[in-house]
Design brief:
It is built from two helices and no strands. With 52 residues, it is mainly α. The longest helix has 27 residues. The termini are far apart. The model has no long low-confidence stretch (mean pLDDT 88). Keywords: Membrane, Transmembrane, Transmembrane helix. This is ABC transporter permease.
């Protein structure tokens, strides 16, 4: 899968590396600010205290 993405990216290896880092950052930001906040109320998590 990663080879397929690498071949689709335009440019030389340095440009591909920069583009892949930007894409990974965008995916992480979407997960952090959109998906995880949407998912958190739907998970059955109980509050716990560390050290008890």
């Amino acid at each position: 899968m990663y080879g397929w993405i690498w071949r689709l990216l335009p440019g030389n290896p340095a440009a591909k590396a920069l583009t892949s880092l930007v894409l990974a950052g965008l995916v992480a930001a979407v997960l952090w600010y959109v998906v995880f906040p949407w998912l958190e109320p739907r998970l059955p998590l109980d509050p716990t205290t560390v050290g008890r």
